[in-house]
Design goal:
The chain has about 90 residues and is an all-alpha fold. It has a single domain, classed as Arc Repressor Mutant, subunit A. It contains four helices and no strands. The chain has helices at about 10-25, 30-40, 40-60, 70-94. Helix 1 packs across helix 2 (about 30-40), helix 1 runs parallel beside helix 3 (about 40-60) and helix 2 crosses helix 3.
Length: about 90
């Protein structure tokens, strides 16, 4: 994924770090870079929002328990499908 604009941190790297960012499991320097990128990049910010919503949905559905076997994998597959769809849509819009 790329918005086509130059950034200090590449879009694909930011998306790979989104869950670490959401969970607060990222070094402070990396956290600041991801936050700056999200502030500058609408496509990545949109993807961050999707990831955040999925995390909240899993938390609501599963409570404090861990997600059922396979749920995380199915969500990751679906998220990848959405990324591809968004990439296709964004590409056509350009």
């Amino acid at each position: 994924m790329s918005c086509g604009n130059p950034h200090e941190v590449d879009c694909s790297e930011v998306i790979e770090q989104v869950y670490l960012y959401l969970d607060g499991e990222i070094e402070e320097v990396d956290r600041a870079q991801v936050r700056q990128h999200l502030d500058e990049c609408a496509p990545c910010l949109r993807q961050y929002g999707i990831e955040n919503e999925v995390k909240a949905l899993v938390a609501r559905c599963c409570g404090d328990d861990t997600a059922p076997d396979g749920l995380r994998q199915r969500l990751l597959v679906r998220l990848q499908e959405v990324r591809v769809e968004l990439g296709t849509i964004e590409y056509r819009a350009e």
